[in-house]
Automatic annotation (TrEMBL):
Protein name as annotated: Olfactory receptor
Organism: Podarcis muralis (Wall lizard)
Molecular function GO labels: G protein-coupled receptor activity; olfactory receptor activity
GO CC, any one term: plasma membrane
Listed transmembrane segments: 27-49, 61-80, 100-122, 142-160, 207-227, 239-260, 272-291
Amino acid sequence: MSHGENLTTSVTEFILVGLSNDPGTQLVLFVVFLVVYLLTLAGNILIVVTIIHNQGLHTPMYFFLSNLSFIDVCHATVTVPKMLADFLSTAKTISFGGCVAQMFFLHLFACTEIFLLTVMAYDRYVAICNPMHYLTIMNQKVCLLLAGTIWLGGTVHSLALTGMTIKLPYCGPQKVDNFFCDVPPVIRLACTDTYVIEILIVSNSGLISVVCFVVLVVSYGIILVSLRKRLAEGRRKALSTCAAHLTVVTLFLGHCIFIYSRPSTSFSEDKVVSVFFTAVTPLLNPIIYTLRNEDMKQALNKLFGSGCTMRRCRGKVGRRAQVKSHHQPG
């Protein structure tokens, strides 16, 4: 028992291999990902503020969309700031505790987002296939209950994966073959046979990803069939919303299935897929939802007043009133 404890605590930090060792390339990557991260924060926070500010968007669909934007901000923040710091540092190290925390929060937000996307598909199914009872079925209590359930599910999933990982003994190799700590590359460093753990990871993360993906595809298949009976305008709007959801689902779950639905073997594409998953996808979500959603575009225009602040608009109204009174006959 004591020998196992010594092995476990012998490694106090890990070295993140990162994306490149060339200083010039790292500087370019720093600028690129800094811009991507700032745009991710701005885009997703803007969506949350717009939904809160606009009473017309206080519906179940936009409640879940604001949750998605919040999760995307958290998801990107788990890995990108550390990656940016490492681009400017020669010692790309992370403490054992920091590595565990990164794994825990990464899987917490990722799994919660998978469950949220599934709930959003159910929301669209009810809205399109049962519109007369939509607000009765998806009432505020149900929405809050679903939101609490997906966060609880993400927490349980993350605790299970992180718990299995930190119980392994780590006594030698310290280089994590990625730019952040994730379960597959970290367990490769364990000083023991990890086959059983790898199977558990595949059956946990991989199964969740595949099952949710199948449920989502079936849900949208039913929605598309039901849309054939709709009028052209209503069908176009519903198709636009569903297309946005399907795009996000494909981008997000594609990574999860690729990384977690196989034993812990390293592919050269893993880093590229991981970059897309942790840094790019959270940026694409606000773009996809705002560009394809007329209600969001109108709400954004209303929020910004079409380039006219409240004070300037009042000033224009006042000037028009003065001109009008000046031209009226005395």
